[in-house]
Design a protein that fits this description.
two-stranded antiparallel ribbon; 8 helices; four-stranded mixed β-sheet; 3 domains
Length: about 300
């Protein structure tokens, strides 16, 4: 897969919804070494970086962490950098270890009366006889590795952007479903008020005859009761939160997940209040729809950067 170029470097990404799940991989050569660089991310509340590199890159580990944190920002991150030697270059023999092994094995062979003709053969089967040659990176090599790390992060961020685009479509759809259910609640509200008035009047007639009912007092009590059932403010605030949610999705900043989560909490508060004031079966069903859509939104926001 070709690596994406600069537009997907984090500092140049603007206005996208980014998923916290991503993957980037690049392979390249340094002299006789074939390098494999992989970066994976999953959702997390903060940057949790696990960096595993070959000894050749150990001295640059802090710089690598800085590069990764700049591009990834947030998420559980695993980065591995390994290499294979492409030629058959042998490691260096450790003469101190060879001599010490030989001395010990020769002494044992002499004590046991065993011919020591194969002592050297045995010695070279033992550990630490040879050491792999670890070359230091030149300044040019390190500059090249940094570029490859940038490109792997760009590939990862392209992955995040592609998945984020799907997340955005789903979030927009869920918010619209909440708006539609809210519009249905508004249509039901006058009917609910009329039904509640008729119910209260019928209940009163159960205990008092019509001529004994003080209609003025009844209307006063009814107004007081219906004011407690009024959901106008909650409807206005919930619609405003939905608009703010969509505006935040369209903002040029890339880190939107936490802010969208706060807005979702406010939406949840208004939906719950509407539900507690409903006293109407059809309206309660619409509230359940809104709650269901909001739960799906919150689940998706767990993976939004």
């Amino acid at each position: 897969m070709p690596l994406p170029k600069e537009p997907y470097l984090y500092g140049k990404i603007t206005g996208m919804v980014l998923s916290m799940t991503g993957y980037g991989r690049t392979t390249f050569s340094l002299g006789a070494k074939s390098i494999v660089l992989e970066v994976r991310t999953l959702n997390s509340k903060s940057l949790d970086l696990n960096l595993r590199v070959a000894p050749l890159f150990k001295e640059y580990e802090m710089e690598m962490r800085n590069i990764l944190s700049r591009h990834i920002v947030r998420g559980k991150t695993d980065c591995t950098i390994s290499f294979e030697q492409m030629d058959e270059k042998a490691g260096e023999i450790n003469p101190v270890a060879v001599k010490e092994y030989y001395r010990q094995i020769a002494n044992i062979a002499q004590e046991l009366g065993v011919q020591d003709a194969r002592v050297l053969d045995l010695v070279f089967r033992l550990p630490n006889i040879t050491t792999a040659s670890v070359d230091a990176l030149s300044e040019e090599d390190w500059t090249f590795v940094q570029k490859q790390l940038d490109l792997a992060c760009a590939q990862l961020n392209k992955f995040r952007a592609d998945e984020g685009a799907n997340l955005k479509k789903d979030l927009v759809l869920r918010v619209q479903q909440i708006r539609d259910a809210l519009a249905a609640v508004e249509q039901l509200d006058p009917q609910r008020m009329t039904q509640q008035r008729e119910k209260m009047h019928a209940d009163l007639q159960t205990y008092l005859s019509e001529e004994n009912i003080d209609m003025n007092r009844f209307e006063q009590e009814l107004i007081f009761y219906l004011e407690k059932m009024d959901i106008t403010e909650e409807v206005i605030r919930l619609r405003s939160h939905c608009d703010y949610f969509d505006q935040t999705l369209a903002e040029t900043v890339n880190e939107k997940g936490k802010k969208l989560g706060f807005i979702a909490q406010e939406m949840n508060r208004e939906i719950n209040t509407i539900g507690s004031k409903a006293y109407h079966a059809d309206m309660q069903r619409k509230v359940v729809v809104m709650k269901d859509e909001l739960e799906k939104i919150k689940e998706q926001l767990n993976n939004v950067l």
